[in-house]
Every structure is written in C-alpha cells, then in structure tokens.
Design goal:
The chain is an alpha+beta fold and 290 residues long. The protein is built from eight helices and eleven strands. The longest helix is centred in the N-terminal third of the chain and has 32 residues.
Length: 290
C-alpha cells in the first residue's frame, strides 16, 4: 500500500514537471519563431525537434551528446582516426596545469554546446579568464537541460576536454554539418567566417545551394565543395544510423577529415527558416515513431 502511494506521488511529480516543461518550451518557441508549436501532431522541423525533446528517451543520446563519451561511439562506428587528438580530460578546473599544455589547444566542457576556448598562442593566452569561464560552465545550472530542456544533456557528468587545435593555415576552418534523418544524410549546411561574422549556407548532396536561411545569413563568398565530401556523407550515414534525427559535423584539414560532434536539437529547435516553408519541408524528412 505504502509503495503504491509513493509511486502515485512520484508519477504526480513527474507529470507536474512535464506540464511545466511543455509550458516553458511553448513560450520559448512562440517567442523565437512566432507560431504556436503543436506537440500532438508536429509538422515543422522545429516542432518535431521539440517533440523529440519531450518524448525520445534513448540512453545512446546521452553518450553521443557527451563531448568526451562520444569518442568511444565514433571510434567503434567509423574508427578513431577521425577523432581530433585528445590531449587530456579533467574533472575540475583546478586540475588544469596550463604550463603542461602545448602552445595551441582547445578546451571545452562535455555537457553543452558552444562552450569552447581556443588557444592559438599560449604567450598571449589569459589563463585566469579561461578558468573563470570554465568554472561557470561546470556549474549544474549551466547544463543545457536546465534552461532549454534538451534531454540528451540532462544526465551527463561534467568534464573538461582538452583537444589539439586544428591548424588550417591562414583561412577559417569551415564546419560541414550534415542533417541526417533515419540514418541518411539528406542535406547539410556549412559554417564559415567564424572569425568575423558567422555565415551559414545550406546545400543538397549534389552541392546545389538551397534557397533559404536559418537564423544566420548566407555568405557572399563562393564555398567550394570539400575534397572529401563523399567520404563525409558515408561517415555521416554510419554515425546517424541509430537515430531518427541527428546532425553530424566534420572538419576537413588538408587531406584529412575530423569528426566534430553529434547534435540532436540544432539551434535548440528554435531557429527560424526564411522562407518558413522550408521549416515544413525539412519537417517532412523527420519521421517520428510515436
């Protein structure tokens, strides 16, 4: 009897939390995109990403959203040669001895997105500022789940990952991000001009530029197809196979391809398409197994 009562209370607590999360997501979505999300019958790409946040509970998402744990997944699926070389991993910012790190490196926390520190020259690198930023990122409230309810981050144990800096001569390092649906790369976008003002351009798999933007403006420069484009497509298909949707990122450095990350709710599922019809065209590709 008492156990049944506890189960009843826990179920009520979970349902109350779920109602709060849906209400918060609805408010954020309306403010960001200008239309009400339909959680019961989602049709647009952004709506379906919210549905996945609320309903898709595959533990593999947690491993693959973890910037450290995903390395094992990538190594098993396509081989460790595609991983950016690891320098070290730390549980606490106080464990980092900057004197022992190379002149160039990248620091990032494993439980979020966009929380990166790039050191191109340790002689003019502000170690104290880096420590302050990482200390903030390591706080529990910094976990993306706690303010955007991106479920895949919820149970990741915070770590600090240090990787080699990918030197790309004098040019910016383009980021090739493949949008994969049910294990197939359907299209991609390229992030360029990060050092000045980030630009984003969408392409189909024949390298035809697609006629829309999503949040960011297109580049005014010609973007060449990477020499390893077909290899990237093949690798993206392998890595995305278990998921209804995932974005698979790669870099090309000289003749080599490096894995970037796996992202399950790009832009938090709240970045507007222009024109909006592409929100629904992309949504048609995302099949939800309800």
């Amino acid at each position: 009897m008492y156990k049944n009562f506890l189960n009843f209370l826990n179920n009520k607590k979970r349902e109350k939390e779920r109602i709060h999360i849906k209400k918060t997501i609805r408010s954020q979505f309306l403010e960001s995109l200008g239309y009400e999300p339909d959680f019961k019958n989602p049709k647009s790409f952004n709506e379906k990403l919210q549905w996945l946040k609320l309903n898709h509970r595959d533990p593999l998402l947690t491993q693959c959203a973890d910037k450290y744990a995903v390395r094992d997944y990538v190594s098993n699926m396509i081989g460790k040669k595609y991983l950016v070389p690891l320098i070290d991993v730390f549980k606490d910012v106080d464990d980092i001895d900057f004197d022992l790190l190379p002149n160039k490196f990248v620091l990032k926390v494993n439980h979020g997105s966009g929380q990166n520190i790039i050191c191109k020259n340790k002689n003019n690198f502000d170690c104290d500022d880096a420590r302050k930023k990482i200390m903030e990122w390591m706080k529990p409230e910094s976990n993306h789940y706690n303010y955007s309810y991106e479920w895949c981050y919820k149970d990741i144990e915070p770590l600090i990952v240090c990787e080699e800096y990918l030197d790309y001569c004098k040019n910016d390092l383009n980021d090739y991000k493949f949008l994969c649906f049910s294990g197939n790369a359907e299209n991609l976008f390229v992030c360029s001009e990060r050092q000045t003002d980030l630009k984003v351009d969408f392409f189909d798999l024949n390298w035809n530029k697609l006629p829309f933007t999503r949040h960011y403006q297109n580049s005014k420069h010609n973007i060449d197809k990477p020499k390893n484009f077909q290899l990237m497509i093949d690798l993206a298909n392998k890595l995305s196979k278990p998921f209804p949707f995932v974005r698979v990122d790669f870099y090309e450095v000289g003749d080599f391809v490096f894995f970037g990350e796996l992202t399950f709710y790009p832009g938090n599922g709240m970045e507007p398409f222009n024109p909006i019809e592409w929100d629904y065209k992309m949504g048609d590709l995302l099949i939800l197994n309800k």
